[in-house]
Amino acid sequence: MVTSFKEQEFDIAVKEMECPDVSGWELFVETHGIKVFRYYRVQSKLYEYKVFGITNMDADKCALVYMDIAYRKTWDSYVKELTYLRKGDPEVIYWEVAYPWPMSNRDYVYLRQAKTMIKNEKNVYAILGRSAKPGELEERETVDPKRGVIRVDDYLQSMVIADNGKGTSRIYMHYYDNPKGHIPAVVVNWAAKTGVASFLTTLEEACRSYRLE
Q1: Among residues 86, 117, 156, 182, which one has the fewest Cβ atoms lying within 10 Å of its Cβ?
Q2: Cα–chain-centroid distance for residue 168?
Q3: How would DSSP label each residue in 160-201?
Q4: What is the residue range of 125's domain?
Q5: Kind of pairing, strands 105-119 and 91-97?
Q6: Is residue 146 part of a domain?
Q7: What is the mean pLDDT of the chain?
Q8: CA-CA distances (angstroms) from residue 159 to 50, 78, 97, 101?
Q9: pLDDT tens-digit profile of 155-179?
C-alpha cells in the first residue's frame, strides 16, 4: 500500500536548504551561484549529490514547472515517456529516460509528493520523490519491465524551492540513482557532474517559456 511521505521528511528537506549539512561531503562544482556537493557510496561505487544556490526563477512558477509532467515532455529531451499511474498524495509516476546509443534506456516507477509552506512570509515548496518499493503498489499502479529497458529501483530526489524575492529563488536538491547495467561508474559519475547543473539551466529556460493558463 502506498504511504505518504512523513511530515518530518519535508521538514528535514526545508531545514537542509536553510542550514546545509555537508559534513563528509565534497564540494564538486561551483558555478553561477550554484554549489554541488557529492558523497561517495562505497557499496554502489556511485555518488549522491546535494545542490544549493540561488537561481533567476520565480519560485511559484518554478514549482509549477517542476510538477507539470505534461510540460516536461516539451523541454526535457531525455524524456521518452512520462505519465501518471496514480494521482493523489503521493503520486505514482512512470518515467522512461532516453539514453544515448548504444546504452539501454532506463525507466522508473516512483512516488512523488509536494507540500507548500510559509517561511518568513514567503512561499517554500518541498517536493519529495523516491523509487516505489516492492509490494507497495497496486497492480494498476505498476508497469511491467520492458524488453531492452533497465528498471531503476534505487532512486531519490528531493527538491526545495523558496521565494527569495525580486523574481529569484533559493533551491536545494538532493539526488541519487543507480542506473545499473554495464555502465562504468566513472561514466555515470561524469554524466552526473554535467547533468545535475545542466538540469537546473534547462529548468530555468523552461520557466521563462512557461505560460499560466
Answers
A1: 182
A2: 20
A3: EEEEEETTEEEEEEEEEE---TT--HHHHHHHHHHHHHHHHH
A4: 7-209
A5: antiparallel
A6: yes
A7: 90
A8: 10, 19, 19, 30
A9: 999 999 999 988 899 999 999 999 8
